Amino acid sequence: MSSQTNADLIIFNIKQLLTVPHKPSGEEENDLLGLVEGAAIALSEGRIVFLGKEEEVRAQVNPSLIKLEIDAGGGVVTPCLMDCHTHLSGFPYGRADDFTARVYKDSDYANIARKGGGILTTVRETRACPEERLLSYGKRILNEFMRHGVGTIEGKSGYSLDASGELRQLKLLDQLDKSHPMSIFPTYLAHMVPPEKKEQRESYLTYIIHEILPQVLPFARGIDVFCDPIAFNREESLQILKAGTEKGLLASAHVDQTAPFQAVEALASSATSLSHLENISEEGIAQMKAQNTVGIVFPSCSFHLDLPFAPANRLLREGIDFALSTDWNPGSSPCSSLLFVAYLAAKKMKMPPAQIIRSLTLHPARALGLDQEIGHLGLGYKADLSIFQLDDWRDLITQCSNPPGVTVIKNGKTVWANDCLLK
Fold first, then answer.
1. What beta strand segments (E) does 34-142 contain?
2. Distance, CA of 52 to CA of 256 (rounded, Å)
3. What is the DSSP letter of 198?
4. For the segment 263-273, what is each residue's pLDDT rounded down to a tens digit?
5. Buried-state track 298-336, b at ≥16 Cβ within 10 A, e below 16
6. Are strands 35-44 and 47-53 parallel, antiparallel or unpaired?
7. Mind listing the pLDDT tens digit for each residue in 373-407?
8. Does the model's pTM come out above 0.85?
9. Which domains does the chain have, with CATH numbers?
C-alpha cells in the first residue's frame, strides 16, 4: 500500500482524455492530443497526481483517501480552454454605427477609426459608463466564456487612454478575477493616441511611459501595444514594450492587422507573443520562427470585418506555435465563443483538428507564460479541466458555436455545471 499514490479526488468514466503534451510522441492526431481512451484522473489538493487508463489509475491510487469521485459521463476531457487576448474591460456595445457603415456603406475598419469611430467610440462609452455597470457586463461575458469550456482568459485595458481610466479598467479586471472563478491575466494596452494628443505624439508617449505605466503596474501582468498605421508606429511601439518589460511585464503586440506594416519584423524580438498577423510578410514569418515568438490569431475578427485570415497553415509548416482567440471586443469581434473560433479555424483556415485543440489550450498558455501550470494535463499541473458531454472530441470544432454540456473544474473544484455558475 505504501507504493500507492495518495489522492483525494478521482474523475472517472472518461471516454476520451486529451492531455495535450508539450512534446508529442509523433505527428499523428492522437500523438498531438495525447489521447487516452477509457481514462481517469487522480487529484490531490487541486493538482494532478496520476492519470491514464481507468484501471491503471484505480490500481495506483490509495482508495481509502478518496473523498470525492466525479463521473465524467463517458465524455471528453480537455485542459480548460484558454483565450489569451480579449478586451474584456471595455463597454461591450455602442458600435452599431460602425457595423452599419461596414455592411451597408462599404466603409472599412481603418477608415472608420480615422474618422473618430471604432476604438474611439468605445473609449467614449467606457469613460462614461458607471463602474457597477461595467462590472455587471464583465461577469455576464465571463459566464458566456465559461459556458464554452474556458477557464482562463487574458483581459486588456486600453479603452480610456489616460492614467486614471486605464487604472480603473485594470482594477475592474482585478475585481472580476476575485469575484468569479474564471482566472484573468490582466494586461495594460497602449491602444492608440487620443485625438486631443494627435499633434503631441512624443509627449503622449512620454506620458504613457512615465505616468500611466507606474500607476497601472500593481494591477498589470502584461503590456500590449497596437502597432498599426492607425495607432502607434514601430519605433513608438518598441519604446512602449521596452518600458513595460523593464518593469517585469510580459510583452505582446497587435501587429499587421489593417495593412502590411512590417510590425512583426520590428517587434518579434521584443515580445513573447504577436497578435493578428493578417498581413504578415514572409520576412515576418522568418523572424517569428527565429525568435520563437508565439502567434495569436483571430478567425472571428477576420470573419466579422471581412479581412484576410491569418496564414495558419503557413505558420504550422514553419513550426511556429500560435493560439486561437476570440479577440473579444465590441467592434471587430463581439464573440465570446472559442468553439465558434474553432469552427472558423477549420472551415475558413483549414487547420487540422488536432492543431486547433492545441491552439485552444497549450499554445495560449505559452503565450501568457502559464504553460508550466495549465494548458496541459500532466503530473503536478493544476487540475484546470473541462468535461464536455461529447462522444467524439472532434465535435468541439463542428458545431458552429453550439456548446455541448460542459463541466468546468478549476484547481480541482467544480465551478460550472448544468449550464450555470456554481456558488
1. 35-44, 47-53, 68-79, 81-83
2. 43
3. T
4. 999 999 999 99
5. bbbbbbbbebebbbbeebbeeebbbbbbbbbbbbbbbbb
6. antiparallel
7. 999 999 999 999 999 999 999 999 998 888 899 99
8. yes
9. 9-79+377-421 (2.30.40.10), 82-367 (3.20.20.140)
